[in-house]
Amino acid sequence: MVAATLSACGGESGNGAADDGKITMGFSQVGAESGWRTANTDSVRKAAEEAGIELKFSDAQQKQENQIKAIRSFVQQKVDVIAFSPVVESGWDTVLKEAKDAGIPVILTDRAIDSPDTSLYKTFLGSDFVEEGKKAGQWLVEAYQGKSEQVNIVELQGNTGSAPANDRRDGFAEVIKADPKFKVIASQTGEFTRAKGKEVMDAFLKAHTDIDVLYAHNDDMGLGAIEAIEAAGKKPGVDITIITVDAVRDGMQALADGKINFIVECSPLLGPQLMDLAKKVVAGETVPARVVTEETTFTQEQAKAALPQRQY
Ligand code: AHR
């Protein structure tokens, strides 16, 4: 009974770490849907190597069932720590309970889950997505200050049910609701990909002749939308104001070129902090329940200045 309780409370060193001193991390990545995700995967792989942590990497191809399978397999392999970026917010309690019962600590990275049981994971490292949505909304409110006509907004959301899609939508909505001239006339998922962003923007343009603003939950969807806007004979960044999130190199280039008007940064470079946290939780040390990534925003002029040093 005592042993079981200890194990449920952590028991982090009960696995491989104690044997050879080398930490093994099972990492379940969402997929490879965007430039952000590629940069995040690179950051995690590089940081693991630098920290001397053995990484068992699994790509879920945007499917929750693949992530659940990967976590179960990490439990069976008795890894020392599991880290994952949950594709959607809900539906994790059962599998995370299995990891907890096996004494394997879990770290949420990039995205959160919505379980009330916070004992299922040790910490959550990642951005404040609500804040990102608010920053997008605040820039828009300032950009249209003094104008009284209705502003028609279309929104390309991230994957349905994912934390960044929910939070960026809510943060943005909370800010723009203060002024009734802002109206979201269409909102649909573009699944965080360029191809889907283009397809959905194309449909928006066919259904609405009066779009003033596009708010895309990531750069890739914004870049796909730019192709659709140009194909429709309109000038992105001029005829339609475009706000995106991420600030990956291609997005920053489009911002510097005047095709995007504003980008809210979301940093994918989480690898080093993740490895640090992993070492601590495996050693049984207390870590903060939430580690928020530091981020900024970019105007077109700021993008021009930042591009030469941009790492991703
Ligand atoms: O969870 C982070 C989001 O996922 C990024 O903003 C987006 O590009 C990615 O696919």
From TrEMBL:
Keywords: Signal. Residues 1-20 are annotated as: Disordered. Pfam families: Peripla_BP_4 (PF13407). It comes from the Bacteria. CDD domains: PBP1_galactofuranose_YtfQ-like. InterPro entries: Peripla_BP_I, SBP_2_dom. It is found in: Cell envelope. Residues 27-285 form the Periplasmic binding protein domain. Belongs to the bacterial solute-binding protein 2 family. This is ABC transporter substrate-binding protein. The lineage of its organism: Bacteria, Bacillati, Actinomycetota, Actinomycetes, Micromonosporales.
